[in-house]
């Protein structure tokens, strides 16, 4: 299996799929042999993730320009209102919301409190959209994916794990 290794100042290994490529993020001092063993150990997960991403890309490629334009318009209105709603409940504030054409992530939150959402989120059920909004708002408090971060999400969406699974169905 082909994969790209990206070394950085980190303590653990992360494997992710980007545009059909397997990316392994590894600590600076980790050997190629150790990385290869980890990749081999996770081959089944990697193959499933590659297939899921392939199906997702195929589905999104059939959208017409007009459909994309409409989804972006809907996303601006719907996700903007949803973000305002949950930010008020969570007593948080953000600077700006942008709608992107990202195909590999549904949302992101910058350290300057700007939140981005992919218009593709509009193809998913409302429960999944709410999860992504609360997830990104939680990053305003915790800029990581620690247990504290997920505790914030769980406080507002006790069923967040089920909602997160909805994002993997397409």
What does this structure look like?
The longest helix has 26 residues, at 65-90. Strands 1-3-2 form a three-stranded mixed sheet. It has a three-stranded mixed sheet with strand order 4-6-5, with helices on one face. It folds into two domains: 4-61, no CATH class; 65-166, Zincin-like. It is of the alpha/beta class. The radius of gyration is 17 Å and the shape is globular. It has helices spanning 32-41, 43-61, 65-90, 126-138, 147-156, 160-166, and strands at 4-8, 14-18, 21-27, 96-100, 107-109, 114-118. Helices cover 50% and strands 18% of the residues.
List the helices and strands and how they pair.
Layout: E1 4-8, E2 14-18, E3 21-27, H1 32-41, H2 43-61, H3 65-90, E4 96-100, E5 107-109, E6 114-118, H4 126-138, H5 147-156, H6 160-166
Helix content: 40-55%
- Span between N and C termini? 24 Å
In total, the number of domains comes to: 2
Count the E strands.
6
CATH topology of the largest domain: Zincin-like
Name of the level-1 CATH class of the largest domain: Alpha Beta
Would you list the SSEs in sequence order as H and E? Answer: EEEHHHEEEHHH
Main sheet overview: 3 strands, mixed
The CATH superfamily of the largest domain is Metalloproteases ("zincins"), catalytic domain
Query: What is the percentage of strand-forming residues?
Result: 15-25%
- Gyration radius, to the nearest Å? 17 Å
Query: Given the C-alpha coordinates, what overall shape results?
Result: globular
Uncertain runs are: none
Please give the count of helices.
6
User: What is the averaged pLDDT score?
Assistant: 92
SS-based class? alpha/beta
- CATH 2nd-level architecture of the largest domain: 2-Layer Sandwich
In the sheet with the most strands, the strands line up as 1-3-2
């Amino acid at each position: 299996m082909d994969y790209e290794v990206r070394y950085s100042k980190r303590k653990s290994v992360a494997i992710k799929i980007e545009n059909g490529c397997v990316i392994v993020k590894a600590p600076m001092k980790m050997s190629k042999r150790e990385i290869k063993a980890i990749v081999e150990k996770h081959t089944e997960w990697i193959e499933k993730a590659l297939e899921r991403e392939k199906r997702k890309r195929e589905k999104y490629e059939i959208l017409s320009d007009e459909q994309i334009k409409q989804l972006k318009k809907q996303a601006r209105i719907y996700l903007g209102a949803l973000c305002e709603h949950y930010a008020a409940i969570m007593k948080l504030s953000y600077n700006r919301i942008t709608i992107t054409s990202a195909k590999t992530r549904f949302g992101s939150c910058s350290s300057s409190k700007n939140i981005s959402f992919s218009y593709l989120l509009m193809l998913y059920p409302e429960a999944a959209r709410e999860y992504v909004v609360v997830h990104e708002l939680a990053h305003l408090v915790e800029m990581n994916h620690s247990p504290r971060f997920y505790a914030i999400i769980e406080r507002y969406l006790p069923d967040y794990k089920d909602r997160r699974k909805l994002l993997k169905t397409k």
